[in-house]
Design goal:
Structural class: alpha+beta
Helix content: 40-55%
Shape: globular
Number of strands: 22
Number of helices: 24
Strand content: 15-25%
Bound molecules: arginine, aspartic acid
Distance between the termini: 36 Å
Radius of gyration: 27 Å
């Protein structure tokens, strides 16, 4: 009997302990610590986050604002993704030194390349300042008054905080504004490129394999932090020295097997796990389909040009990848939400919520309020999606008119800014024109402007798009506009302010673009924000109400680009009936996907040789070379480059993506099918050591054998 009871407890813990969540590292004691240990962790909450002693958090950095990175040596060596370092690698590349194509490996400190503008930040301390933030806030105030009181309080909190003068302070809202935390931050900006594999390894599989498992990508790159002689942040100087971290991650070469504990430490960007069913419905049935349709058409056109013309392929590769990344994610997201019945599940929870709160005057109307507000915002949310996708994301000429509109507004309000604003415009246009092809853009325009005009809710259709012939409009604009080539553009901006304003207002592209942009700034956006502000106020109450209504549930705050941990296990999954995906992929799979000369699936000869000779050094296992693995860790955009850690806090992998069936995890994390994808750290070591022959980097790391 006793045995069964223990077994039962063990099984329920195993099941309940894998429900995802992104947790605040300073608040792990209690539930999270217990849960992690039940999953196999040998770490205490203090091993992960401590302010008095060094802890794991001292090895984690926010990399250049959008990604995560980690310190893996006592000389400030940073590991992050190839796709996070891509811009830097590209900026050092030329036809003679194509580091994207061939890779880059600094063989000594002096060969490491500086990257102006690049920065990383450490989190030194996290304090809960909720009480101070709500000081003087009361229920007589309306939502706007409350927020302005909170903003005043935050300004005071920031002013009075104890910190060193080279440190920064940030206060951020959690649980939809029910909790406020303060972060003490250190920012370093002498960051140098140390190593990157060729694209054929670092981006192997490209867009075809993106968001998919099984995966075979060596998505990593290496950088180094340099500091002044006191180990403090400093602008680039050749006198700077490698940074000495408070902690760096030892690297385990014992590998992973299914069910091993994993912890991901990083900076997830944005999730929305507590939306009402009606909001998810709107995303799945209104907003996502519109955005997907636009990108479907744009990508098809760009792809056909890229396939036919090598120059266009280079010009559009990066833009194409960016547009395709979220296009593919939204498609997966929609399918996942349908398949997991996420909307019905939310509705069931809401029914329960209503039943429990039917006599609670504060909470009983919340779901009705949501209903009313989401119905109200539906049209304008759709209009906003169309405008953003067409005018801002996909038609380059229209995007140029948005910039021109902002220029006109600015210099009209402040004529003294004319010269500097004009210089800025000319300057930024140079890079844009380098990668611009008017023929491609014209085809995209013609297709998208018709979709825009016929599908945007009538109230938001701009006058200049009413009753027009799309093909005539396209021919006029692309035939006559001066925004389609650098010479005409320059001449358009010549002359006095008055002349310039007159000339641009006679340009057919600007005439249309101005009309669209003005409608966006004066009709679409204000309306959207007005309703959205009310939605946020209800969402804040609803968050609080959920936590009070279901006190035994685990609630984690939505991602907001602040430091979090998430944990789980190495696990395969069933993508559909009858198919099981194993959690580890091998170099064999790279060779299986190999297509000589293909831009996505080519494989460097040297890697083929290493494979054929089974020359894996100490990094292979049973004659095989592991490449990627998946786990039940709840991650999102921004977690790219995050370390995957074992039960002791050693590095076992590098996070870079999620699986197709689980991209809906931003709205509805489902432990059955949501998986994050990591590069096995042994593959990274293998590439650095055996492929690149860079022993000095291996030697500065601390390789460990925790399983032995
Ligand atoms: N899907 C991953 C993320 O959202 C990787 C994107 C980079 N790779 C690519 N093929 N576009 O960032
Ligand atoms: N690939 C994403 C990133 O760059 C990670 C994800 O969305 O899972 O942050």
């Amino acid at each position: 009997m006793k045995y069964f009871k223990i077994l039962f407890l063990f099984i329920t813990l195993q099941i309940t302990a894998q429900q995802g969540g992104m947790w605040i590292p300073s608040l792990l004691e209690g539930m999270n610590e217990t849960e992690m240990q039940s999953l196999g962790s040998k770490m205490s909450a203090k091993d992960i986050y401590d302010t008095n002693n060094s802890s794991l958090k001292d090895a984690i950095i926010h990399f250049n604002g959008g990604c995560t990175g980690e310190i893996i040596s006592d000389k400030g060596l940073i590991l992050t993704n190839h796709h996070c370092g891509y811009g830097a690698i590209q900026s050092h590349s030329s036809v003679e030194h194509d580091y994207l194509k061939n890779g880059f490996w600094a063989m000594s400190d002096t060969e490491e390349l500086s990257n102006p503008g690049m920065y990383v930040t450490f989190i030194k301390r996290i304090d809960d300042v909720t009480k101070q933030a709500f000081n003087g806030v009361n229920d007589v105030m309306n939502a706007k008054e409350k927020q302005s009181k909170i903003d005043q309080n935050i300004a005071i909190i920031k002013k009075n905080v104890t910190k060193d003068d080279w440190q920064d302070v940030q206060v951020r809202a959690f649980y939809k504004g029910n909790q406020y935390l303060l972060f003490i931050i250190e920012k370093y900006n002498d960051i140098r490129l140390v190593g990157a594999p060729p694209t054929a390894i670092g981006k192997f599989g490209s867009d075809t394999d993106n968001w998919m498992w099984p995966r075979h990508t060596g998505d990593f790159s290496l950088f180094r932090i340099y500091a002044d002689k006191n180990n403090r942040p400093a602008e680039y100087s050749k006198d700077n020295v490698p940074f000495k971290p408070k902690h760096f991650l030892p690297v385990s070469i014992d590998g992973v097997v299914e069910d091993d504990f994993t912890l991901i430490f990083g900076f997830p960007g944005r999730t929305n796990e507590y939306l009402p069913a009606i909001a998810i419905d709107q995303i799945v049935h209104t907003v996502n389909p519109a955005k997907i349709e636009i990108r479907d058409e744009a990508l098809k056109i760009v792809d056909s040009y890229m396939r036919a013309d090598d120059k266009i392929k280079i010009q559009y590769a990066s833009k194409y990848a960016r547009i395709a990344n979220y296009w593919k994610k939204w498609i997966g997201e929609n399918q996942g939400i349908e398949k997991s019945n996420a909307i019905a599940k939310k509705q069931k929870l809401e029914q329960e919520f209503i039943n429990i709160n039917k006599n609670n005057s504060k909470y009983k109307n919340l779901l009705n309020d949501f209903d009313k507000l989401y119905k109200e915002i539906d049209d304008v949310a759709l209009a906003r999606a169309y405008w953003t996708e067409v005018s801002y994301r996909n038609v380059e000429l229209l995007r140029a008119t948005v910039r021109l509109y902002q220029f006109e507004e600015k210099v009209t309000a402040d004529p003294t800014s004319f010269e500097s604003e004009r210089a800025k415009l000319i300057n930024s246009s140079k890079g844009n024109f380098k990668n611009y092809n008017a023929k491609v853009d014209k085809d995209v325009f013609e297709k998208l402007i018709e979709i825009y005009s016929t599908k945007i809710p009538a109230a938001y259709l701009s006058d200049n798009l009413k009753n027009v012939n799309y093909s005539d409009l396209t021919n006029t604009i692309y035939g006559k506009s001066k925004l389609t080539n650098p010479e005409d553009f320059k001449s358009l901006l010549e002359g006095t302010q008055q002349q310039v304003i007159e000339k641009i207002n006679a340009d057919p592209a600007y005439i249309l673009g101005k009309d669209l942009t003005k409608d966006f700034y004066t009709k679409i956006n204000p309306k959207f924000y007005e309703i959205n502000l009310e939605i946020q106020a209800v969402q804040k109450e609803y968050m609080k109400a959920l936590m009070e209504t279901f006190p035994d549930e685990r609630f984690f705050p939505d991602a907001n680009s602040t430091l979090r941990i998430t944990y789980g296990k190495v696990k395969g999954y069933y993508p559909k009936d009858g198919i099981y995906y194993k959690p580890v992929s091998y170099l064999k799979g790279v060779i299986e996907k190999y297509k000589p000369g293909d831009y996505e699936f080519d494989v460097p000869q040297k890697l083929i040789n290493l494979y054929q000779n089974k020359d894996f050094g100490k990094y292979g296992i049973d004659g095989k070379m592991p490449v990627n693995f998946i786990g039940t860790n709840h991650t999102t955009g921004g977690n790219s480059g995050s370390p995957a850690l074992d039960a002791y806090g050693n590095l076992i992998g590098l996070n870079f993506d999620r699986v197709w069936e689980g991209t809906m995890s931003d709205y509805n994390y489902d432990p059955e099918i949501c998986r994050n994808i990591m590069v096995d750290v042994r593959y990274i070591l293998f590439i650095i050591d055996k492929y690149a022959g860079n022993k000095r980097l291996i030697n500065e790391m601390k390789l460990v054998h925790p399983k032995k």
